[in-house]
Amino acid sequence: MKFFDKILIANRGEIAIRVMRACRELDIETVAIYSSADTNSLHVKYADEAFPVGEAHPSKSYLNIERIIDIAKKSGAEAVHPGYGFLAENYRFAKICQDEGVIFIGPRSKTIQAMGSKIDSKKMMKDAGVPVLPGTDDGVRDIEDAKKVAFEIGYPVIVKASAGGGGIGMQIVNDEPALEEAITASMRIAKSAFGDATVFIEKYLVKPRHIEFQVLADEHGHAVHLYDRECSIQRRHQKLVEEAPSPIMTPELRERMSSAALKVAEASAYSNAGSVEFLYSNDNFYFMEMNTRLQVEHTITEFITGIDLVRQQIAIAAGESLPFDQSDISIRGHAIECRINAEDPFNNFSADPGKISRYRSPGGPGIRVDSGIHMGYMIPPNYDSMIAKLCAWDSTRIEAIKRMRRAISEYIILGVQTTLPLHYAIMNSPQFIEGNTHTHFLQEEHIIKTLERYKRDEEARMQTLAGSFGQGKKVAAITAAVNVYLQHQKE
Ligand code: MV4
Q1: Strand intervals (E) in 255-380
Q2: Total count of domains within the chain
Q3: What is the span of the domain harbouring residue 160?
């Protein structure tokens, strides 16, 4: 079954390669685009054809809609996969693709647009019977009205930008005297970041969990969910560790949350892959937003369900019906993803682009590495700092954690600082092992203390490792042995 002959991948790095891998298995030819900073990038070599798309700055290349459509037509690509980031949630791009006769692999333009407004999507879900946090139903119009609503729901409240993303413009307000200034500040930030000053207020949850459900829907009205992911461990709204399923999930909670997720898909007449984000606190959950794209962490869902999400996205875009229904989808075991960023966790996570001087990625049972880097690769400073995704699967959560520790111990990335030491600290943290995570997990004392201990131990730092529980030495020794081996390889 051939869904398309040729697909253009409007992205770079690991996700471009991930999509091309699905294409190759489906006998679909691939077209890469690349900026002037990516002439030597792996996604360009992996593709059957590659076209320059412009200068390094994203606005001149990976966001250049006109040029991308032009390349799609010139190359004869019938469809475009946007990956994540860049144009993935740009409803104008989806619309232009449609108008130009190129299939956009994702939901319809109108759905992307509707989900892009936090106020509109929240309203739509509330009407559909999905739990949402109490707050203003519309944008804040006058301060007296805002005060009244905040008083009714009780402080603390949060002011959010309707067009917002990544926490931009969010203001937490603890009491009435602080409300007016927070609204003004939020509106100003929202106006400059999104060109839309609309803000709304809702009840603030102090240490919620972020739990999301993967959904797949075809263009014939069938929708299924592919279970849950826990994504609470993040820093400045960038996720760092995700796991599937959530460690707190019970059959009863899963029943409640998955039916809400499917209601979201139904109410929006959704098609293609998406995820429904909830905040969870005290056995209650609330719809936050729907991501209308393939997400970075789709890998762990693939591990526990055995379903190739990119293959399904392509089949759905080709007009196929879902080849399974809900009763065919079950989960097996537990999967964890660690995002490896070229950042220095010992220096306030400052970006550390540059040349990879030594590289060896882990392998063996239950390990998956998605990356676009290799030995000798120069990480350009122009894009996101995520350079690899390390995923571990095993039959139980604790075994998956131990497998992840083992994989981290095998992972050698020299030449740039990475988040590997932080991941090792997290995988050894008693709180994490208990599944006791929330959105403020990384601010907690214990992780910072462990990192400071690693920092003092220069040798361990070189190996990117040092352990709690007395395992550090053994693991560091293994890493050192592999490093020596690689040194010999080079000389
Ligand atoms: C919240 C919240 C607490 N209460 N809303 C952050 C980004 C945006 N998607 C929503 N965010 C939050 N909204 C209420 N009413 C806490 C956060 C939040 C958060 C949410 C998910 C993952 C990480 C987070 C980190 C800090 C704050």
Answers
A1: 272-281, 284-291, 334-341, 343-344, 350-351, 354-355, 358-360, 367-371, 378-379
A2: 3
A3: 134-203
